[in-house]
Specification:
Mean pLDDT: 83
CATH topology: Butyryl-CoA Dehydrogenase, subunit A, domain 3
Number of domains: 1
Radius of gyration: 23 Å
Distance between the termini: 23 Å
Largest sheet: 5 strands, antiparallel
Low-confidence stretches: 43-53, 73-78
CATH class: Mainly Alpha
Strand content: 5-15%
Structural class: alpha+beta
Order of helices and strands: EHEEEEHEEHHEHHE
CATH architecture: Up-down Bundle
């Protein structure tokens, strides 16, 4: 018989698992990993409201995507074009970034799988006589290691020609040059930290759903068990 067991710790772990997976996925897909040096607006870039030139803009560069201004779109308020600069995996600007993409993709796939499974832990607490929380926690730990490898390798690619075109000639491996780090890089770091927190917290979720109080309510014949 399926018993729906909801505890504060198990629900918090489930929510964190979902948030971490989405945060890492959004960061990976974003082009805001590097914020390039300011580029002056061309004579065509005129603010229609003031009649003056617009302020210099900062193009952004991601692992496989970029955002830049299209100067001929002078009559459009939204004159920034974002999209992938690499149509195939081999076109990613650096071998280090290719490795980063692989490790991050593997970590995100694991996190998304765990996030999907975590929704069903209210009904299923074990699989093949092993706690599903412990299995998911182990997978989250492995995903965190993949994410760390990807984030360590990413700065090694700052010396590629693509990064130099955005960050200036002084950019090199682990040196930003004229660039600064964008929100996507910090989001990926924050998501990696939360991944390990989820891995540790999965043990607390397992303890909460297998506590003596839960077992007492199961013996009383309750199918829906909600505990703080």
């Amino acid at each position: 018989m399926c018993h729906v067991i909801v505890t504060c710790r198990s629900m918090l772990w489930t929510l964190l698992s979902i948030v971490v997976a989405f945060a890492e996925l959004i960061a990976f897909m974003s082009a805001d990993w590097l914020i390039g040096k300011a580029k002056p607006s061309s004579s065509e870039d005129v603010d229609n409201r003031t009649g003056g030139s617009q302020e210099p803009y900062h193009p952004t560069l991601g692992i496989y995507g970029r955002c830049t201004r299209i100067s001929h779109m002078q009559f459009s308020r939204r004159d920034t074009l974002c999209g992938p600069y690499a149509e195939t995996f081999s076109e990613i600007a650096s071998g280090f970034w290719q490795a980063t993409a692989i490790f991050l993709a593997m970590g995100i796939m694991i996190l998304c799988t765990v996030a999907f499974v975590s929704v069903f832990t209210m009904c299923v607490q074990s699989i093949m006589k092993k706690s599903i929380f412990n299995v998911c926690g182990l997978l989250q730990g492995i995903a965190g290691l993949f994410l760390i490898l990807g984030l360590i390798l990413y700065p090694a690619g700052w010396g590629c020609q693509k990064a130099i075109s955005y960050c200036g000639p002084y950019a090199s491996a682990y040196k930003l040059g004229d660039c600064s780090l964008g929100w996507a890089f910090y989001t990926a770091i924050g998501g990696t930290v939360l991944t390990f927190i989820c891995a540790v917290f999965s043990a607390q979720a397992e303890i909460a759903t297998s506590s003596d109080k839960v077992q007492e309510e199961i013996e009383e014949g309750k199918n829906l068990i909600c505990l703080l």
